[in-house]
Amino acid sequence: MTNCPNCKATLSENTQTCPHCAADASWWLAREGEVFGPFDFATVRFVLADDRATLQDLAMIGREGQWQPLGELIGEEGSAATGPTIAPVASRAPDEPKTEPRYRNWSATGWLVYVVLFVLVCAGAAGAIIWPIHARVSRENAAQAAESNLRQIGLALQLYAHEHGGRFPLQGKWDEAIAHYLPDPQVHRTRVRGKEESYWYNDALAGGEPVQWNNKARLVVAAEPGALDEPQASPPRAEGFLYLYADGEVRAHPPGEAFGEVQPSTARSPQQ
Fold first, then answer.
1. What pLDDT, on a 0 to 100 scale, did the predictor assign at position 243?
2. Is 201:246 a contact under the CB 8 Å cutoff?
3. Quick one: pLDDT band at residue 78, thresholds 50, 70, 90?
4. How far apart are the first and last CA of the chain?
5. What is the pLDDT of residue 244?
6. SS3 letters for 76-137?
7. Which end of the chain has fewer CB atoms surrounding its CB within 10 Å, N or C?
8. Which of 236, 239, 237 is nearest to 257 (CA)?
9. DSSP class of 4
10. What whole-number distance in Å separates Cα of residue 57 and Cα of residue 87?
């Protein structure tokens, strides 16, 4: 129980406004240069009992009140209250270290900002770990599938030539021309360099020439991206880049090693 600072009416411990004169009866505490409140008298009792404030700390009742030591206010309230008085809180020994936790209120906005920042930091750390692993695994999977893809491209080119008078597709449209001969229309694309791109196609074999050559075992038809770059790029595997030859074979060659020929040895087959 406490008294209203204006009309001196007896108030319950859980009220902060006088029901008789509507005066502000909230309690305010000052400690270590910070002001805490508003509290009701029951909260002040709890703060004292929990050793979060001392009788020497400054306090006032109402926003227009006067700052006084908390012990004096409690003494005045206790003498006028009809309920039990508050037992004094034992002071600390001079040589005992002060470890009182500060009593402050966390707003909902503060907690929300804290949670959002924590989630963002965790997401950023997870992304920094997972993204490089995902990119490496994607390149490794593409490198493992490259040999099968090149063999399917070679078979599709042979089927196309068989249905088009023994001629390979035109330059620039070879991937569209053989798409419906492939089990998956995207087989002619790969991600061995981390981005999706088409396999290299030998344009010297395009343009309507017959597809019978004397150097099929050495004639390169298609290859992985970067295999014929100058300077040659880093290969996606230790064995080197994969090359598709006119005889249907797929072989790997490391950078710097002779991989075959890009020009057919004959431009036209004998006329039937």
1. 92
2. no
3. very low
4. 118
5. 92
6. HHHHHCCCCCCCCCCCCCCCCCCCCCCCCCCCHHHHHHHHHHHHHHHHHHHHHHHHHHHHHH
7. C
8. 239
9. -
10. 16
Task: Give CA–CA dist 41/44, Å, rounded.
Answer: 5
Could you tell me the strand order of the sheet in which 34-39 lies?
Answer: 34-39, 27-31, 58-61, 68-69
Q: Which candidate, 259, 271, 238, places its Cα nearest to that of 140?
A: 238
Q: Is 189 helix (H, G, I), strand (E, B) or coil?
A: strand
Q: Parallel, antiparallel, or unpaired for β 27-31 and 58-61?
A: antiparallel
Mean pLDDT of the chain: 77
Tally Cβ neighbours within 10 Å of residue 225.
20
pLDDT number for residue 134: 62
pLDDT tens digits, 92-122: 444 444 444 444 555 677 788 888 999 999 9
Amino acid at the residue 271: Q
214 touches 266 (CB < 8 A):
yes
Cis peptide before 94 (omega within 30 of 0): no
264 cis-preceded (ω within 30 degrees of 0): no
**What letter would DSSP give residue 187?**
T
Say what the pLDDT of residue 120 is: 92
pLDDT band at 21 (very low <50, low <70, confident <90, very high): confident
Q: Delineate the domains of the chain, giving CATH numbers in brackets.
A: 2-80 (3.30.1490), 109-253 (no CATH)
Tokens of 134: 């995902």
154 vs 111, which has greater pLDDT?
154
